[in-house]
Specification:
This is Large polyvalent protein-associated domain-containing protein. By secondary structure, this protein is an alpha+beta fold. Helices cover about 55% and strands about 15% of the residues. The protein folds into two domains: about 15-140, no CATH class; about 150-299, no CATH class. It starts with a helix and ends with a helix.
């Protein structure tokens, strides 16, 4: 057998590699479009799938509703995502057996000009990997159920709030309600004597209402009631607050039934965006509290 011919093999031409890259990018992008639509239809039809979506969004609050749907469709148990470079910077590597199983999300690409002179945005599919797909030991990435003390969370929740917050007796609130947003007074009233979890659930819901009322002359509590419940649920899941038995999520069928995937994503984005605004304020406060405690300990 002659082996010389086997050795006379050149490198793969640059244009061929580029063509493969373009084809893979197109396929990944199409997968994302289809998977997000599929997940959107599923959460609109199944309250349990809707709850799982909220769980994912609570874990990945920085991600858009569309990307949370993609995570739900591909790896709902994911806890922390990053690309290969992200994990390498943290002293780990994506396991060889996992490299062909990325979690694809969409990220903004270049702008383009349409024929009518308006501008659009290209989107690209990005490969991410969950920490469980890396060589980082489990003990280093498993998060405690409650990362912060109760008083830290409550302080962070009300920090920099866009409305004033006051305690009130039973007579100052609707019956059976722990907290209530009054748009006319630009205030939230919280019932005296509640426990930490109850305070968090009630005030986070009313802060979501305050977000929906911000700058809107057409704010209607009933219209945004379920959105606010879901935003509160997302925040509770993010910070380890008990949700079981405290949120009725079956109303998702009434809100999302009959909508197309684009409309479903718009409703989910309303929930996520309100939660994310509150989350941003909380994270700043928690960072400041942690820094202050560290400085006190070092003195």
């Amino acid at each position: 057998m002659e082996f010389d011919d086997l050795l006379n093999t050149g490198a793969v031409p640059q244009d061929e590699r580029m063509a493969d890259f373009v084809a893979e990018s197109r396929d990944n992008r199409n997968f994302c479009y289809e998977a997000a639509e599929r997940a959107a239809r599923r959460v609109a039809e199944d309250p349990e799938a809707f709850r799982r979506y909220l769980d994912v969004q609570g874990c990945f609050l920085r991600y858009t509703a569309n990307n949370a749907l993609l995570i739900l469709e591909q790896k709902p148990e994911a806890r922390r995502l990053g690309d290969m470079a992200y994990w390498k910077e943290r002293g780990g590597f994506v396991k060889r057996t996992e490299r062909a199983r990325p979690v694809l999300v969409m990220e903004p690409g270049k702008e383009y000009k349409r024929e009518d002179n308006t501008y659009g945005q290209y989107y690209n599919a990005k490969k991410l990997y969950d920490v469980s797909q890396t060589t980082i030991p489990e003990r280093e990435w498993q998060r405690a159920p409650r990362e912060y003390e109760d008083h830290q969370l409550i302080r962070a929740l009300i920090s920099r709030a866009p409305v004033s917050i006051h305690t009130a007796g039973e007579e100052g609130l609707p019956e059976g309600v722990g907290a209530w947003f009054n748009p006319e007074e630009h205030s939230i009233y919280a019932r005296k004597g509640m426990g930490a979890d109850e305070i968090f659930r009630g005030i986070s819901r009313e802060l979501a209402h305050a977000e929906y009322a911000k700058g809107s002359v057409e704010y209607d509590r009933e219209t945004y009631g379920f959105h606010a419940e879901c935003a509160s649920y997302i925040l509770c899941r993010r910070y380890g607050i008990e949700t079981e038995g405290h949120y009725a999520l079956d109303s998702s069928l009434q809100l999302l039934e009959g909508l197309d995937p684009k409309e479903i994503k718009r409703e989910l984005s309303l929930m996520r965006d309100a939660a994310n605004h509150i989350f941003d304020r909380m994270e700043k406060s928690l960072t400041e509290q942690t820094r202050g405690q560290r400085n006190t300990q070092e003195r």
